[in-house]
UniProtKB/TrEMBL annotation, chain A:
Organism lineage: Eukaryota, Metazoa, Chordata, Craniata, Vertebrata
Top-rank taxon: Eukaryota
Sequence ranges assigned to domain Fibronectin type-III in this UniProt record: 325-420, 421-514
Signal sequence residues: none
Any Pfam family: SPRY
Domain B30.2/SPRY: 496-694
Keyword Mitochondrion on entry: no
SMART domains (UniProt xref): FN3, SPRY
Transmembrane segments: none
Signal found in the keyword field: no
Keyword annotations from UniProtKB, A to Z: Coiled coil
Ranges in a coiled coil: 210-237
Protein name, UniProt field: Fibronectin type III and SPRY domain containing 2
TrEMBL record, chain B:
SUPFAM superfamilies: alpha/beta-Hydrolases
EC number: 3.1.2.12
Intracellular or extracellular location(s): Cytoplasm
Similarity section: Belongs to the esterase D family.
Protein name: S-formylglutathione hydrolase
GO process terms (BP): formaldehyde catabolic process
Summary of the function given for this chain in its UniProt record: Serine hydrolase involved in the detoxification of formaldehyde.
Record's keyword terms, sorted: Cytoplasm, Hydrolase, Serine esterase
GO molecular function, one term: carboxylic ester hydrolase activity
InterPro entries linked to this entry: AB_hydrolase_fold, Esterase-like, S-formylglutathione_hydrol
One GO cellular component term: cytosol
Length: 699, 262
């Protein structure tokens, strides 16, 4: 990247350009906009003002240089990316470049583009654009040979596409700016880290060297002390010898004097003493005089033992073994069903090469659960441990390691994996226009903390709806409020301290009409319920069987079955397809209706009964054993039943001819369920999920 | 046709009015009652025609039945015409309570001296609806008819003779088979002459047998202890049997008490 303005290489002289620049500056009132105007003039280049960058100052570098570099890189981009090179001749190119000025607004999103007609040819302004030559021409010119065969587009269109191109390139430049800024701040961080590292090393060296010096000094003292002792010893020995020598000398002298005295004595005394003296002398001379020097003058060479100093010197370059890391408690929602993310931090001054993370499932006391410990080695201060069992607690410990050795183990932290997803009991979903009752199996052997139900309303195909969540559900069922006449996809998640499970398989609910299924548990043994829970069949019996024993849940006398209607008040509507020739009863009953009685025979049930006594159809509307006297001329094949909690009404309709048959007024203090019975072999088919038909709404 | 308002009373947020007009069919002044619910102020409402029984006028229904609240709530315009032409000065018209004045039987008489005035069938099915449609906020596509006793008979025959004209028809203790019962025989003899084949055209049970469509919704309420039932004047069973045969949808309710109240 040179600093030579490239503009100098182009056509018009600098002077011309300056004049034109000034003109433009005045023309567009940019005198006050110093940045733009000054830069324009100062740089002495015709250029596009792409944007106003904040003056980026890199620590330790010259700001001007930095800025200049940016500018040039911008210019470089300009030259390459904006492909102005292809736009016709140099002169025209330049003029046009001046002509397009963009001012960069505060929000950096607003661009104003001024298009200036060429000053030379005001009467004959180019008004079309030759795509082939990439130059603006006058319409007349099109006719000329040069451009005859060329493709031409209106100038405005060409301008538009040029503007678009410029916009795009500006965007790229801005992106580059951001990247560079990020990089610069990253560098700053590295700076700081280097300083820190240096500081640490410095301290380390200092303490090591101090230790070595102390050791040396100590050694010196010790050795000197030993030498002094030795000297003392020798001197004492020698002194001892000297003293005994002196004594010896004294004795010798004394003897000599005595002998001399004896020699001067009379002959008789001389002989006496001489013999004694001779003995003494003899004895004395017999005692050996030790003339060996007891202590050698030379002091032994001291072996200087510097091995430990050497070791210290050697260990200057080694760092101490780390301290125990600090293991973090589990971050909420950081676990999945099979993995946890364990985090820890190192003791601040330690240098660590790697960590060893050990874990095992928490012992729950039952036999055979003593699991081996697993270990994994990582370099980071976190680790995602996978292949774990859902909804289980694991103990984690971590040790840090460097060249000097292993740290002690950290404290033990317990992490828990998220649970397995629950399983929605799709077949048992009940719904109406305003709500749905979902139940599910936990999906986990051990208890979880709670469940979350997620609902997504299907709006238009392809558009993803907003997800609504119901949280903190303690049991495996939930009654959720919904909007009428919509479709919902429902998921359930289980939650524990580790986080939420993955979503369960979805269940779909349509809030059109009410949905329910026949409840097998209430079904009389002679009735068979279909797989989809919507058809009840009583087949011919070859041999009569005994009646089943009494039960509180199962019908024993009346060959009946109840449906599981959602316990929500409001309107519910369903239809039953019947056989004109069969004897059947349809209606509603409270959950605790006596199961050993007929439907309609008590005050806990309301129903319509049809009896076929050829050729007559008999219809009864039974409650508490009573029925009004009603005759119906057209036997219904499909009966519509409307249960209206608000108005305490139960109505029956002939669906095919939209005919109202009868309405009960019933006090519904509790929730009721649809009930069905077949007094003779036959079949009843239930139709669900039907909106209340218009004709029914009047009742 | 000029309508003269005779009375107007506020009732359950709506207005119970009585009008008088010169009837072309009946050649005399006729009164009718009309109830306009609150909804009629802002839009067109369905029209319900009530036909009263023997001896009644346009007053009986509006004063005794208590229908106003229901009409108000459901936004229904209820029209109750008189049961026969009045003040025609026909000899013998006031001799019996079950023939002549107050006993029009909703037929178009063919016999003299009745044929000039006693055209209640055309009045109820043609003239009156046209008058109402022109002067009141009613929806001409939504019309139903009901009545009591003789009016029940009238409602049934109007509906059966005009398939598709009425959305529904109900009857309280109607005379279902007039060609057989004493009332019917007397009336038809007088209005239509001795030729019984002409009577069938105004007999619900017979009309059902040749009714072309089944798009009809018939509701009949009958009091179990109604004396006229036991006297054989009403004969609902015949009608029901015919409907069952022809698969015409009827719900027939036999109520514990007698409904007869006029």
């Amino acid at each position: 990247m040179t600093s030579e303005p490239r503009g100098a290489a182009r056509g018009p002289s600098q002077r011309d350009l300056e004049e034109e620049v000034d003109e433009l500056v005045h023309l567009y009132g940019l005198e006050d906009d110093d940045e733009l105007g000054d830069e324009f003039v100062n740089e002495n280049m015709p250029r596009i003002e792409v944007s106003e960058y904040p003056a980026y100052v890199v620590p330790g570098r010259e700001p001007a240089v930095g800025q200049r570099d940016w500018r040039l890189s911008g210019e470089a981009a300009e030259a390459e990316d904006l492909s102005f090179g292809g736009w016709g001749s140099e002169g025209q190119c330049q003029d046009l470049r001046e002509a397009y000025r963009y001012t960069h607004g505060r929000a950096s999103e607003e661009y104003e583009c001024y298009v200036i007609p060429e000053e030379e040819d005001e009467e004959e302004a180019p008004d079309v654009f030759c795509v082939t030559c990439k130059t603006p021409i006058r319409a007349l010119e099109k006719v000329l040979d040069e451009h005859k065969e060329h493709e031409v587009t209106p100038l405005s269109k060409a301008l538009e596409s040029a503007k678009d191109e410029i916009h795009r390139n500006m965007y790229r430049l801005e992106k580059q700016i951001i990247e560079m800024e990020n990089f610069a701040s990253h560098l700053e961080e590295v700076f700081i880290t280097v300083e820190e590292n240096f500081g640490r090393q410095e301290q380390n060296f200092e303490s090591h060297y101090n230790e070595i010096l102390e050791t040396l000094a100590q050694k010196y003292e010790e050795k000197i002390q030993a030498l002094v002792e030795k000297k003392k010893e020798k001197l004492e020995a020698l002194y001892g010898q000297l003293v005994s020598c002196g004594e010896n000398l004294d004795t010798c002298k004394e003897l000599m004097e005595t002998v001399e005295e004896i020699c001067h004595e009379e002959k008789v005394d001389f002989i006496k003493d001489a013999v004694a003296m001779a003995d003494r002398l003899r004895k004395f001379l017999e005692t050996k005089t030790d003339v060996e020097i007891s202590a050698q003058p030379a002091l032994e060479d001291q072996t200087l033992d510097f091995s430990d100093v050497e070791q210290l010197l050697g260990s200057i370059n080694t760092i101490p073994a780390p301290s125990a890391p600090v293991i973090n408690p589990q971050a909420p929602n950081s676990a999945t069903g099979s993995s946890v993310r364990v985090c820890w931090s190192l003791y601040s001054d330690d240098t660590v090469e790697s960590y060893q993370l050990s874990y095992r499932p928490v012992r729950d006391g039952s036999p055979g659960t003593d699991h081996a410990e697993s270990t994994v080695t990582v370099k980071e201060t976190y680790c995602s441990v996978a292949n774990l069992v859902p909804n289980t607690q694991y103990e984690f410990r971590v040790t840090a390691q460097n060249r000097a050795g292993l740290s002690p183990a950290s404290e033990c932290a317990v992490y828990m994996t998220a649970p397995s997803p629950p399983v929605i009991k799709s077949k048992e979903v009940r719904s109406c226009e305003e709500a749905a009752l979902i139940c599910w199996e936990s999906g986990n052997l051990n208890p979880v903390d709670s469940y979350t139900v997620e609902l997504i309303q299907a709006e238009t195909p392809g558009a993803s709806g907003v997800t609504e969540s119901v949280v903190g559900i303690p049991t495996c069922e939930s009654l959720v409020q919904l909007q009428p006449r919509q479709s919902y996809t429902i998921y359930v998640r289980a939650l524990n301290v580790g986080g939420p499970s993955a979503r369960s398989e979805p269940a779909t609910v349509h809030t059109t009409g009410s949905y329910f299924r026949l409840n097998e548990q209430t079904c009389h043994p002679w009735l068979t319920i279909s797989e989809d829970g919507l058809t009840a069949v009583r087949s011919e019996r070859k041999t009569p069987t005994r009646e089943p024993p009494p039960s509180s849940t199962r019908f024993t006398r009346c060959v009946a079955v109840m449906g599981n209607l959602i316990p929500v008040r409001g309107h519910h509507y369903w239809e039953v397809e019947v056989d004109e020739r069969s004897d059947y009863t349809v209606g509603v009953a409270f959950e605790d209706v006596p199961k050993q009685e007929d439907l309609g025979a008590n005050c806990l049930s309301w129903c319509m009964r049809h009896t076929w006594a050829s050729p007559r159809h008999k219809y009864e509307f039974l409650h508490n054993k009573t029925t009004p006297d009603i005759r119906i001329t057209v036997a219904p094949k499909k009966i519509g039943i409307l249960l209206d909690y608000e108005n305490s009404k139960l109505s029956f309709f002939n669906v095919d001819i939209s005919q109202h048959l009868y309405t009960f007024s019933c006090q519904l203090h509790q929730f009721v369920h649809p009930c069905f019975s077949l007094e003779k072999p036959g079949c009843l088919k239930i139709h669900n999920g039907i909106s209340v038909p218009k004709h029914v709404t009047f009742y | 046709m000029a309508l003269k308002q005779i009375s107007s009373n506020k009732c359950f947020g709506g207005l119970q009015k009585v009008f008088e007009h010169d009837s072309v069919e009946l050649n005399c002044k006729m009164k009718f009652a009309i109830y306009l619910p609150p909804k009629a102020e802002t839009g067109k409402c369905p029209a319900l025609y009530w036909l009263s029984g023997l001896t009644c006028t346009e007053q009986n229904f509006i004063s005794k039945s208590g229908y106003h609240q229901a009409a108000s709530e459901h936004g229904l315009v209820v029209i109750a015409p008189d049961t026969s032409p009045r003040g025609c000065n026909i000899k013998g018209e006031d001799e019996s309570w079950d023939f002549g004045t107050g006993a029009g039987f909703y037929v178009d008489a063919t016999e003299h001296p009745w044929k000039t005035n006693y055209r209640m069938y055309s009045y109820v099915t043609e003239e009156l609806p046209q008058l109402i449609n022109a002067n009141f906020p009613v929806d001409p596509q939504r019309m139903s008819i009901f009545g009591h006793s003789m009016g029940g008979h009238g409602a049934l025959i109007c509906a059966l003779k005009n398939p598709g004209k009425y959305k529904s028809v109900s009857a309280f203790a109607p005379i279902c088979n007039p060609v057989i019962c004493p009332w019917g025989k007397k009336a038809f003899n007088g209005y239509l002459g001795a030729d019984q084949s002409k009577w069938k055209a105004y007999d619900a049970t017979h009309l059902v047998k040749s009714f072309p469509g089944s798009q009809l919704d018939i509701l009949i309420d009958q009091g179990k202890d109604d004396q006229f039932l036991s006297d054989g004047q009403l004969l609902p069973d015949n009608f029901i049997a015919a409907c069952t045969e022809k698969k015409i949808p009827v719900v027939f309710r036999l109520q514990e008490a007698s409904i007869r109240k006029s």
